[in-house]
Structures are given as C-alpha cells and as structure tokens.
Design goal:
The strands form four sheets. A six-stranded mixed sheet has the order 9-8-7-10-11-14. Helices cover 39% and strands 17% of the residues. It is globular, with a radius of gyration of 26 Å. It is an alpha+beta fold. Strand 8 and strand 9 form a beta hairpin. The chain binds zinc ion (ZN). Zinc ion is lined by residues 301, 303-304, 306, 320, 322-323, 325.
C-alpha cells in the first residue's frame, strides 16, 4: 500500500515517466490498470514468503520495466463490456474482436495483452461444470513417452512428430536475430559506444531497427503459436480418447540444464504439455498418472520386466537379454507407462484380476469414482534391488492418505 501511495504521488510528475511528447505515459491508460500491478505484486510476495516458510524452492518477483516486460493490463468486469463481436474498453473505446465470446457464464474480468503487432483480449468466464464437461470418445489406457526425436510415442506404437513448420521457422529466427543484432551493432557504432553499454543508456531508435525488431517479434509469436497449437491438439486428443493416460513426470529444470537437450525440450514444451493434460483431464474425466523421474521406463523390458541397465541414451532399439524381444526404445517406454496407468486405474477401482500384475506391493488409495485426478506414481530407488517384474511395482500416493 505504501508503495502504491508513493507511486500515485509521482506518477504524473516524474520526469522519467514522460513520453517523448512531454506527457506522462500513464495518462493514456485507465486508472484501474495502475492499481492492478500492485495487487499482483502483493500476491507474488506473499506466495514467495509462503513457499519459503514451507521450505520449498521459490524465487522473488522480478523487476519489470516498461518496454522490456510484455505489454498488457487487467480489466475488472465492470470496466468493459462486450457487444457481439466488439468490446468497449476504457480509454481505448470500441475495438473489433475476431470472434464473439463463446462461453456462457459470469464474466469475471479480462486482460489485454500484446504479442508482436497483435493485441489480445482474454476474458475470464466462470462456466458452470455441466457446460465445461466434455464427453470422451474412447476408454483406452495409454502410456505416452515424450521425446526428442518424436514429440510423443504412444503405447499403441503410434509416433507423433512435432510440428513441421517449426524447423523452418527456427532457421528464419536465426536469420532475423542476426539481422537485428547487426542493426544494434551499427547503432552502437554510430553512437560511439565501445564495449559494454552503461546501464540506462538509450540508443536512438532508427526506423530500420524498429522494423527489424518487429519482424523478429512477429516470428517469435508465430513459433509460440505453432507450439501451442500442437500441444493443445495432442493433449485434447489424449484426454478425449483415454480413461487413463500415463506420462513421465520429467524433471524439466534438470533437463534444461543440459544444453544439448534443451532446444528440443523447449520445442515440445513438456511443462506446458503436462499442465494442459491436468486441466483437460478434469474436463474429460480422464485419469492422469505421473511416473516420477526415477521410474526406468526406457530400461525395462515391457515383455518380461528384465532391466537393461546398460542402455545408452542414443540407442534407438535394443534386444532384451531376458526374453530376446526386440524393442523400439520409445514404444517400449510407452508400454511400460501404460502398465503403470493400468495399475493405478485398477487400484482405484479395485479390480482384483487387473491389479495382480502391476500393483503388487502397492496400497490402493480410496477407490473414488469419476476421473480428472492426478496420481503421482513414485518409484523408489534401492527398495527392490532385484530385477524383473518387481521393477513394475506401483506405489500410489493419494493426497488424503
Ligand atoms: Zn524381455
């Protein structure tokens, strides 16, 4: 509150907050949008301290600067209105929308944001459950191996490649970034700056450089859209066709630290993929099983359970020493994950014949009907040091146990 007060005192008078025409830039934005960032900041800090107190990893909110942070602002539901395919926003006035609002329910608020040269209005609607629910088209149980060569491999043997337009776009991204950095270099040379730029220095923005920056931003926005489209279609399909889906709960942070892998992982957007699976599962009543990162899904033979400890990261196919089966690395991993899903599902519904093979030694959680739940499956190292079927044991941890 003190910060907000201080801000309000100087927001129209501080010389640093004047536009090139001498007017305070905050005048162009509705007063309500000034207050929202403080509410967000307060929320971010209290969340930070809450996590710290709980002993969990947390990072403090980062400083955001006009022109550096993404452009956008929040609108409370009484500050704008929708009229078919247009919206009336404070200060901005009437804007045409690409489509009318598709959802029926109470409008909670909206936010306006910019991506490259496009402006978006995201409207938050409280939709009753019966409208939000979706009907599944199938009751399959699928294991999904997320990978680098193929974005996803299903236990049915199907391999889903990542979106193809992405590769071409990434090449273009390099070209446009290079062009922009050369323009920046030229601007620095023209300004007579050698070496490091002193903090706070402003290079005069040429039209050419602004155009170059926009071209790069447009492409980055397009790449983001291609990725988003792909993950949305994949996660919707998985939740729609299955009663249970098992994926690896990869340690994304750890994998990103590996520079060679990181490009491919960001491409597929593992984190986003799991986030979407979670909320769509609730919508379709699908059960999501997360196998933790210690579960050796690639190393176990899906036929006999023999563990292939010497499996190298690059090996695409391997032969089981136990039963001689030929395995495609990714399909085999997907089948192992499918097995986990079957086990978790069986434990929940307590079907004795199905639970035998997979859930040996596992305690069943309370058998709740319905879906949309997420079951983390914990694989504990060293608990069973033998090889074979026991590696497939499922440990189910439900929240309320
Ligand atoms: Zn085998």
């Amino acid at each position: 509150m003190a910060l907000k007060k201080a801000f309000n005192r100087i927001k129209y008078s501080d010389p640093d907050w004047l536009d090139s025409d001498g007017n305070p830039w905050l005048r162009a934005i509705h007063r309500d949008a000034h207050a929202q960032p403080f509410a967000n900041l307060a929320k971010a800090w209290s969340r930070y301290f809450e996590l710290r107190r709980a002993g969990q990893p947390a990072h403090a909110p980062r400083f955001k600067k006009k022109g550096r942070a993404p452009d956008g602002f929040y609108l409370a539901n009484d500050k704008f209105r929708l009229e078919g395919r247009s919206a009336v926003l404070p200060k901005v006035g009437r804007v045409a929308l690409r489509e009318a609002l598709r959802w029926h329910g109470k409008i909670m608020g909206a936010s306006v944001s910019r991506e490259a040269a496009h402006w978006y209005l995201a409207i938050q609607v409280d939709v009753p459950d019966y409208l939000a629910r979706r009907r599944r088209t199938g009751d399959a149980v699928t294991g999904v191996d997320l990978g680098v060569t193929n974005a996803a491999t299903l236990s049915s043997g199907e391999k889903i490649a990542g979106p193809r337009p992405l590769k071409a776009a990434l090449r273009r991204l390099r070209i446009r970034s290079r062009r922009l950095s050369r323009k920046l270099e030229a601007a620095r040379a023209a300004a007579g700056i050698i070496g490091r730029i002193v903090k706070g220095t402003r290079l005069p923005a040429s039209k050419n450089r602004t155009r170059g920056a926009l071209a790069l931003a447009r492409l980055q926005a397009r790449i983001a859209r291609v990725r988003r489209d792909f993950t949305h279609k994949l996660t919707t399909r998985l939740c729609r066709e299955n009663q249970a889906v098992a994926v690896e709960d990869l340690n994304v942070r750890g994998m990103l630290a590996n520079a060679r892998l990181s490009r491919a992982i960001i491409d597929v957007g593992f984190y986003e993929l799991r986030r979407q699976l979670r909320y769509k599962a609730a919508r379709y009543g699908t059960h999501i099983v997360l196998a933790d990162r210690w579960y050796p899904s690639s190393k176990l033979c899906s036929g006999c359970g023999t563990r292939n400890g010497g499996l190298a990261p690059g090996e695409r196919t391997w032969t089981c020493a136990g039963c001689g089966a030929q395995h495609d690395r990714d399909v085999n991993a997907a089948i192992n994950l499918q097995r986990l899903a079957t086990g978790a599902l069986a434990a929940r519904t307590a079907l004795p014949e199905a639970s035998q093979a997979v859930t040996r030694g596992a305690a069943a959680g309370p058998g709740l009907a319905g879906g949309g739940e997420v079951t983390p499956v914990r694989h504990e190292h060293g608990q069973q040091d033998g090889s074979g079927q026991e590696e497939n044991a499922v440990h189910i941890c439900t929240r309320n146990r």
